[in-house]
UniProtKB/TrEMBL annotation:
<dbReference type="InterPro" id="IPR023091">
    <property type="entry name" value="MetalPrtase_cat_dom_sf_prd"/>
</dbReference>
<dbReference type="GO" id="GO:0005737">
    <property type="term" value="C:cytoplasm"/>
</dbReference>
<dbReference type="InterPro" id="IPR020549">
    <property type="entry name" value="YbeY_CS"/>
</dbReference>
<keyword id="KW-0255">Endonuclease</keyword>
<feature type="binding site">
    <location>
        <position position="132"/>
    </location>
    <ligand>
        <name>Zn(2+)</name>
    </ligand>
</feature>
<keyword id="KW-0479">Metal-binding</keyword>
<keyword id="KW-0698">rRNA processing</keyword>
<dbReference type="InterPro" id="IPR002036">
    <property type="entry name" value="YbeY"/>
</dbReference>
<dbReference type="Pfam" id="PF02130">
    <property type="entry name" value="YbeY"/>
</dbReference>
<keyword id="KW-0540">Nuclease</keyword>
<dbReference type="GO" id="GO:0004222">
    <property type="term" value="F:metalloendopeptidase activity"/>
</dbReference>
<comment type="function">
    <text>Single strand-specific metallo-endoribonuclease involved in late-stage 70S ribosome quality control and in maturation of the 3' terminus of the 16S rRNA.</text>
</comment>
<dbReference type="GO" id="GO:0008270">
    <property type="term" value="F:zinc ion binding"/>
</dbReference>
<feature type="binding site">
    <location>
        <position position="126"/>
    </location>
    <ligand>
        <name>Zn(2+)</name>
    </ligand>
</feature>
<keyword id="KW-0963">Cytoplasm</keyword>
<dbReference type="GO" id="GO:0006364">
    <property type="term" value="P:rRNA processing"/>
</dbReference>
<comment type="similarity">
    <text>Belongs to the endoribonuclease YbeY family.</text>
</comment>
Amino acid sequence: MAKLIVECGEEGFDVSPLEQYAAADIDSDAPLAAELVFCGGEDIRALNAKERGKDAVTDVLSFPNLDGILGRPIRRADFPFDADEEGNLFLGSVVICRERAAEQAAEYGHSLRRELYYLAVHGLCHLLGYDHEGEADKAAMRAREERVLADMGIGRDAE
């Protein structure tokens, strides 16, 4: 079971459920660290254009740091240059657009809290190597997202 440390400067956003459940089933011999950043629509549009060539507002962007870790034990020895001063392996960064999250929460009929945690879990899944390019990959990622959210006690009707 991996220890996950989520750095987030967003006041009022509790990272402890993510730290407890998002990497609970990951085999790692080092603590894992991730960065979670919240921004507005124009900032994520600019980042999306710069990094992905898509000039559009999106809900979440993920920037994985470790390659080839999906379904494999994560060993510090395999990533000697990716550990910080405390020995934590940096998984990467997740950027969430609060404006888009609020729009989607209203569109899907659930709370903003649920949408923000969903997007954070989605982004963390990407950092762990999951993607949704093919149908099988998409199904595996969605199953993981729903399992982690359920473990966190965040259903579709969460406040």
